[in-house]
Design goal:
single chain, 362 residues, alpha/beta, DNA polymerase, domain 1, TIM Barrel, two-stranded antiparallel sheet, 10 helices, binds iron/sulfur cluster
Length: 362
């Protein structure tokens, strides 16, 4: 039977270079006849330079590269689709083994800096789950519920594939899934991203719908990322509809958990607010939101909705976005309007089969 090549998908049980920690990788390399330092060379090539195949790691002996390609895949996913929009935003569709011969797919988006000459590096938007159990009605990701959590190495793999496209400056964990419902795996992956890929805590944003108890458990550990909480409305009844998994969790409790987060970490929370025309973009909404967040150590990101075909929700007009923004500003709330990039490749906010993507400030 053919052995898997380095760019072939591994079966769920097959260890990959990325599923082994540094010690286990060294042992595996030695078992395959390599020197211990070869493991370090390979790991660095993958994590720091985005090598996706052993053939790219020319500092390893040729015979060893062949052995590794047969015996230890680097990745467990297959790239099944790649789209690029006019602004060079790239969306990858990755298929991970799901078991029983079936695939589990997630999307990853690589957004280059606006100024092509910039040395800042791209922003990478990664996913934490296959499907999403939160089921926000304006987001295509949650339509079919949760399929499964991604393993730590599967989250890490998205960073490596992003790095293979181009230098990474920052990352947003805003793709498919609710990060706090797969936190242990996310946290392990982010440790490697910090320590071995060199993306610092200020350059990583994790976006959640804000489970207060989970936030209170995590905050004292001083996690190395910025926190964004998707609020979407200041009215309890409406939040129960827009963020169904949070039904019964009071908005005030979420905001207080955000305050506690600042107390523990010293980092301000960003509240995300997807503006849906005729739903949550009224003057009354803006005024009530200002009342809720003014005086707190936080800021607000206003994200004009991008229509997803079947959702029935609409994009707000520029006028209503400006009005909403102005009301917040008048009341002393720091707010930014972010328009999505990558629309033509369906890689913009709410179009990833997903929700929030990093967007260009207007
Ligand atoms: S918006 Fe986020 S939390 Fe809501 S269903 Fe989509 S991926 Fe899940």
């Amino acid at each position: 039977m053919d052995q898997p090549q380095s760019n072939d998908p591994a079966t769920p049980q097959t260890p990959t270079l990325l599923s082994l920690d540094a010690n286990a990788l060294r042992e595996r390399f030695v078992a395959l006849g390599a020197k211990p330092f070869h493991a370090k060379i390979a790991r660095e090539a993958v994590l720091q330079r985005g090598a996706l195949e052993y053939a790219q790691i020319t500092s390893l002996p040729a015979a060893l590269r062949d052995t590794l390609a047969r015996e230890l895949p680097i990745l467990s996913s297959r790239e099944t689709d790649r789209r690029q929009s006019r602004d060079a935003t790239t969306k990858l569709l990755l298929a991970f083994p799901r078991g029983a011969g079936r695939d589990a797919t997630v999307e990853v988006v690589h957004i280059p800096p606006k100024d092509r000459e910039s040395r800042k590096g791209a922003t990478l938007c990664v996913s934490t789950q296959v499907g999403c159990p939160v089921a926000c009605p304006f987001c295509a990701s949650g339509r079919n519920g949760l399929v499964r959590n991604l393993e730590a190495h599967e989250i890490l793999e998205q960073f490596v594939r992003g790095r293979a496209i181009g230098e990474l400056g920052r990352s947003v964990v805003m793709g498919i899934g609710e990060p706090l419902l797969n936190y242990a795996n996310l946290s392990s992956a982010l440790d490697v991203v910090h320590d071995e890929m060199g993306i610092g805590a200020r350059k990583i944003t994790v976006s959640t719908v804000g489970f207060p108890e989970r936030l209170r458990r995590i905050a004292p550990t001083k996690p190395r990322f910025q926190l964004a909480i998707s609020l979407h409305t200041p009215f309890q009844e409406q939040r129960d509809v827009l963020v169904p998994a949070m039904k019964g969790v009071s908005i005030e409790d979420v905001l207080e958990a955000g305050d506690d987060w600042f107390e523990h970490t010293g980092r301000e929370v960003t509240y995300e607010y997807v503006l849906l025309s005729g739903e949550n973009d009224s003057v009354e909404h803006a005024e009530r939101l200002a009342l809720r967040v003014a005086g707190r150590r936080c800021s607000v990101n206003l994200i004009p909705f991008n229509p997803v075909d079947e959702s029935g929700y609409r994009r707000p007009t520029q006028l209503s976005v400006d009005r909403f923004h102005a009301i917040l500003a008048e009341r002393g709330v720091v707010a930014t309007v972010r328009w999505s990039r990558g629309m033509e490749g369906d890689a913009a906010c709410g179009q990833l089969r997903v929700r929030a993507l990093p967007q260009r400030a207007s």
